Amino acid sequence: MFFLLTSFTVVAIPYVIERFGLRVRFGLFALLFWLFVFQFVLIFSIDALLQNFATSMPDWLESMLTTLGGFAFVTIGITPIITLVLAAAYLLFALGQWLFDKDEKDLPTPQTHFTVAIDGPAASGKGTLARRIAEAYGFHHLDTGLTYRAVAKALMDQNMPLDDEFLAEKAARSVDLTKLDRAVLSAHAVGEAASKVAVMPAVRRALVAMQHSFAERSPGAVLDGRDIGTVVCPDAPVKLYITASPEARARRRYDEIRSNGGGANYEAILEDLTRRDARDMGRTDSPLKPAADAHLLDTTEMDIETAFLSAKTLIDQALAKNTH
Ligand code: DC
């Protein structure tokens, strides 16, 4: 009777707690219950052994079994008491949590950070779009291309080879995200060198880790690059893949250089972009490609404001979902 009652209590209390969603672990009680059952089995087997074979047993074995049986007998009473005390403590704790956290649980969980991942080939307009989004939502912005450029620039400044993975990884680990100077890093030669260092897995690993922690900044972050939606932030709630025909991209770059007073050759720019695309899309580690859940935006015939409005619709929908 005692056994039946205690075992029922031992199982029933945590079950009730769990049943009402009070987030109490059942495992500890189950373990104590089985310990209880095991002690019962142990004590009965020892008793049976002693009754049947005591006469043929050496003294030392008989006294050892008697001690073991006594020990099991004592703990058999203690186990359900421990279990009951624990169950009662859990019950009080869980009830307190349920009563006092009830109001807080009903509120939507505040969003601590929100990531917008933007990928696309060179001159697709992803950088301009990323800046526009960051400005509109008050989010942090990181042009991840600058991080690869910073590695290339560091190697170039020290006359180091661009294909030594060990040296490049060291340079990558020293990149300071607060000191990325766009004016210096946007030089054409630095971009060319960057696409060479970007094929090295050790460089990518070091930079991806930095980019990943940047993405967790509050209240949100916009990152643009080649592998943001696929590798850096695969869980980003909004992923955009910005594309445009190579001709449109080459024309944009040409106009940009001309408007800054520079000399440019459209054919050379187009050739350069095509070569860069092939390198970015063809490398084995993190090639440029849209994530399976990315929204594609073709900006060949689209101005930045139209692209921004499409992105804004997606971001607003995702933000609304994220508050539930
Ligand atoms: O976007 P950009 O031209 O500044 O990028 C420079 C190089 O860095 C480019 O060739 C590809 C590489 N890159 C990359 O591999 N992954 C990124 N997330 C960003 C840039």
TrEMBL record:
GO terms for biological process: pyrimidine nucleotide metabolic process. It catalyses: CMP + ATP = CDP + ADP; dCMP + ATP = dCDP + ADP. Residues 116-305 form the Cytidylate kinase domain. GO terms for cellular component: cytoplasm. Its EC number is 2.7.4.25. ATP binds at G120, P121, A122, A123, S124, G125, K126, G127, T128. It is an enzyme of class 2 (transferase). The keyword Ribonucleoprotein does not apply. It is found in: Cytoplasm. The chain crosses the membrane at residues 29-50, 71-100. It comes from the Bacteria. GO terms for molecular function: ATP binding; dCMP kinase activity. InterPro entries: Cytidylate_kin, Cytidylate_kinase_dom, P-loop_NTPase. Keywords: ATP-binding, Cytoplasm, Kinase, Membrane, Nucleotide-binding, Transferase, Transmembrane, Transmembrane helix. Belongs to the cytidylate kinase family. Type 1 subfamily. This is Cytidylate kinase. The lineage of its organism: Bacteria, Pseudomonadati, Pseudomonadota, Alphaproteobacteria, Hyphomicrobiales.
